[in-house]
Amino acid sequence: MQPRAYDNELTYLTHKQDDREEAFHQAYEEAVESVRADLGQSHPLKIDGEPVETDNTFTATSPGNLDLKIGEFAAGREQDVEAAVSAATTAASAWEDRNVESRVQIFQDAADTMRDRKFELAATLSLENGKNRTEAMADVDEAIDFLDFYSSELERADGYEFDTGEPTPGQHTTNLLRPYGVFGVISPFNFPMALFVGMSSGAMIAGNTVVAKPASTTPLTAHLFVDILHEAGLPEGVINLVTGGGSDVGQPIVEHEDVSGVAFTGSRDVGLRIQETFMDLGKRGPVIAELGGKNPVIVSDTADVDDAVEGVKNGAFSFSGQKCSATSRVYVHEDVIDEFTDKLVAETEDLTAGQATDRDTFVSPLIDDSAVEYYQEITEKARNDGTVHTGGNVRTNGDLADGRFVEPTVVTDIPHDHELAREEHFLPFVTVHPVSNLDEGIKKSNDSEYGLCAGLFSQDEAEIERWFDEVESGMTYVNRTQSATTGALVQAQPFGGWKFSGTTGKFAGGYWYLQQFMREQSRTRVE
């Protein structure tokens, strides 16, 4: 079997390199108008390949314009989860029995469809969760990457089945990985296409069937992907989409006796509760969870300060910090901290807030009202306990008043052990701290329950090598101006973390991810 060659899908970068940037913008803007005209429809659950209406519904609106209705979505309940798990259980055996070529072809066809529709998908994502056009396209690109890479990996490993020969005369042995059965997939709002696609396709390509619950703020992109899979030939019951709240849908999925494993991305508290539930119920399947970060960056006295400012600004404030990989705390050598802070503040104040679909927008809206309330809470603490150099206010001017916009915020004079410097906020909020040397920077970087992403700006090769060896983080970046801590690419930069940032130590988009959805079996036949 010859795997299809894998390359990252880099739509915006490719357009720029080919001097076709205007074509990118035109295609996106045309897609926005087309998508906007179709918003506001009703969307049922999708169970066993069929639409399922419910007594209750919920409305999703655009975070950048609360008057823009994304759609009306069926609110699932425990009985709907029961039906979805039943459908997934029924479909599991036949799906596992599919040969590798047949199974992979479905996901490769789905990836090709997404390529053809990528501007429509990116426009939908912008309107639904507030990402600007380049980040929305990157979200779609990553989803395509997951489909392509996982397909190529399953082909490369020939389905993870190995003929291990005759260990003793008269015995023939085979060793293989087999799916667990039914997986629950619970995805977040911030990468509504990439993470929904990545987790669910990882489970299905490995031979499992899926009951999926997207975030209630971003259900439309999940619907689009499920439709694409069915158009590509995915059998009924292999993926079942149940929209709704965490207590009504998410918890019943986790607790269901026929759900063997869960893939989850979200908060540490929720992820740990899922693990505890599995332990309490005696479940032996995996909880594959990515659980956030409090990502540090060190700026050495040998750093190019302008590069460090650019990288921290992009890492902290792109998508308004609503990424588990967002730059959250910066440890700057005391000899350059004043220069760094002044430049960071000036660069931050030049960032453009606006509707996600506007070409110049950098600062995105917050996803819901609770995020705005939390922003107000932590910025008030920052004023009381530290120094707010810029930001700290909700934006209410012009058309920003129609959405949930806040100011990117830079804070100093917060002690390293203060809650603002230790807890994940998921907001455009960064604290800057002085350190006297690299030793102190590494020690404070590692003094956290999280270990997702970390960055360093330094021109000293010895510092760089030492930092790589000593920093406690799953993903590490040096002198990266495009973003100090965010923007991992499938295969090249597998996404995951250490400590409380993840549960498995195997990263999404990496060579060991698919095996987590499978368990080993050896087969011995006496001839």
From TrEMBL:
<dbReference type="GO" id="GO:0010133">
    <property type="term" value="P:L-proline catabolic process to L-glutamate"/>
</dbReference>
<dbReference type="InterPro" id="IPR016162">
    <property type="entry name" value="Ald_DH_N"/>
</dbReference>
<comment type="pathway">
    <text>Amino-acid degradation; L-proline degradation into L-glutamate; L-glutamate from L-proline: step 2/2.</text>
</comment>
<protein>
    <recommendedName>
        <fullName>L-glutamate gamma-semialdehyde dehydrogenase</fullName>
        <ecNumber>1.2.1.88</ecNumber>
    </recommendedName>
</protein>
<dbReference type="InterPro" id="IPR029510">
    <property type="entry name" value="Ald_DH_CS_GLU"/>
</dbReference>
<dbReference type="InterPro" id="IPR016160">
    <property type="entry name" value="Ald_DH_CS_CYS"/>
</dbReference>
<dbReference type="InterPro" id="IPR016161">
    <property type="entry name" value="Ald_DH/histidinol_DH"/>
</dbReference>
<dbReference type="InterPro" id="IPR015590">
    <property type="entry name" value="Aldehyde_DH_dom"/>
</dbReference>
<dbReference type="Pfam" id="PF00171">
    <property type="entry name" value="Aldedh"/>
</dbReference>
<comment type="similarity">
    <text>Belongs to the aldehyde dehydrogenase family.</text>
</comment>
<keyword id="KW-0520">NAD</keyword>
<feature type="domain" description="Aldehyde dehydrogenase">
    <location>
        <begin position="56"/>
        <end position="520"/>
    </location>
</feature>
<keyword id="KW-0560">Oxidoreductase</keyword>
<dbReference type="InterPro" id="IPR016163">
    <property type="entry name" value="Ald_DH_C"/>
</dbReference>
<dbReference type="GO" id="GO:0003842">
    <property type="term" value="F:L-glutamate gamma-semialdehyde dehydrogenase activity"/>
</dbReference>
<feature type="active site">
    <location>
        <position position="290"/>
    </location>
</feature>
<dbReference type="InterPro" id="IPR050485">
    <property type="entry name" value="Proline_metab_enzyme"/>
</dbReference>
<dbReference type="GO" id="GO:0009898">
    <property type="term" value="C:cytoplasmic side of plasma membrane"/>
</dbReference>
